[in-house]
Amino acid sequence: NAGVMQNPRHLVRRRGQEARLRCSPMKGHSHVYWYRQLPEEGLKFMVYLQKENIIDESGMPKERFSAEFPKEGPSILRIQQVVRGDSAAYFCASSSTGAHNSPLHFGNGTRLTVT
Amino acid sequence: QKEVEQNSGPLSVPEGAIASLNCTYSDRGSQSFFWYRQYSGKSPELIMSIYSNGDKEDGRFTAQLNKASQYVSLLIRDSQPSDSATYLCAPSVPGSARQLTFGSGTQLTVLP
After folding, report:
1. pLDDT of A1 higher than 60
2. Other residues' Cβ atoms within 10 Å of the Cβ of residue B57
3. A103 to B94: CB separation less than 8 angstroms, yes or no
4. CA angle B9, B13, B17 (to 5 degrees)
5. Hey, are the CB atoms on A101 and B97 less than 8 Å from each other?
6. Per-residue pLDDT tens for B72-102?
């Protein structure tokens, strides 16, 4: 499967725990984007990364959230000390270039539930 | 003003009819436009892209773009129950590191 791979598909955490979401982009893609979708709401941009660089994190909450895309391995979205309001679907997308005409291809998402 | 506005749903059409989904955007610098389909509980799936003014057809789907009016639409001909989903409009601005800002989507239901 050469598509965008996200894991886990479902993640349950208790309040105060850490959540780690992983994303491997499509083969040949070096641009990764994270979006969050709250129930019954639209997709909200969180962060845009290239290998070893955060390009735009303007959509990331200032506290508790961080993202990385190391030279080797998947991109990681980390949420520390989760709260109930963090419950959402988190989608990763990748593109072959950062050009405006390069569409994003989405993974299946990670559904985070905070109890 | 929202950056991307889509016609509020839900939109219901009978099977076989034409479904018309509309989108307006505020950033005049937008150059590329994408339509995604999202089934309930699933991830967004790219179905159409359009870059120039006019119409672009792909099977039962036609995208229409009018940059002067900052308007893009998606027509679905011969609608099928399997087309029932939320459709997301996403303009893209050159040089914008965020690349895509999504509309809130229009939920389409095709009634058999």
Report:
1. no
2. 12
3. no
4. 135
5. no
6. 999 999 999 999 999 999 999 887 666 688 9
